[in-house]
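Sequence in, structure out. Go.
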Amino acid sequence: MLRVAIGVTEVTEQVARLVADAEALGAHSVWAPEAWGYDALTPLAFLAARTSTIRLGSGIAQLGARTPAMLAMSALSLQALSGGRFLLGLGVSGPQIMEGWHGVRFAAPLRATRETVEIVRAIAAGHRLDYQGGAYQIPLPGGAGRPIRSMVAPAPVPIYLAALGPRNLELTGELADGWIGNAFIPESASAFVDHLQAGASRAGRSLDGLDLLIPVSLEITDDVAEAAARHAAGYAFTIGAMGSATQNFYNAAFSRQGFAEDVQAVQQLWLAGKREEAAARVPRDIGFKTNLIGPPEIIRDRLRLYRAAGVTTLQVKSAGQGRATLDAIAALIDLVDEVNREGQPRRD
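Output:
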């Protein structure tokens, strides 16, 4: 069954009203981002006080920006404040942000992800923290520290991982409660889902228990070509600047979906300072197929593809805060309800 979530870029009084209205419409969750501006956790505490049923997700809290114990403390605080509605979304970010903003080495991200998840879950379950891993040793060997148990009552903390690369996807399938999947095209879902399934199978799990959450932009319009071109152009920054010349997780994901030559050309143009040319070079299919663009009948068809691919939650990136945004969310929820009534999804 498909569900609708919303993503916010900041939390103001107007955004809080939008989230409360989306909650009344039946939105599943709201997700706050974290880059190099606002953090992902503080805004959710504000929204927790302004809502009552909508789930509150960090999309994403950057691994390495906080210790695992601090993440667990924040997660348990938000669970208490929200009545158990918090979803902990985590991601490794990249070396440009971790080293250039946080001053933390971007080293062994897979190991750090696994160990962070295990530590957060141990604390949330009420265990005394005694963890000796490759990235984290708690308590530190040879020091004055001793294993400590949280003073807070245990509480479940669902953990979502943002993953693009094959090994990180397998880790997500093995460990996580949900997957946050960017650069996702439902026609080539196997580029992601096969790796999620491989990890789940190794752990003796089924993907049926994993919430596959895909961020999308929503634009209900009759001018599909213009909107697709505009959204495609917006990817020029992602392809050209969200990573180095040799390491860009988004480009690798698009390459696995058949766009290797295109993303290479876009990146080269961007790095050469030809940003307008880079924007024009992004294939319109990337803009169209990673989002929900078009009149209701086209969006309904796209929803069927997401559903058939096993996607369970679509996170709508809110382009605005006014009535038009809320009306678009309401229309999407109605379309999702229609598609859900057609039958059960397939997970091939």
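Check: Residues 81 and 141 are 35 Å apart (CA to CA). The mean pLDDT is 95.
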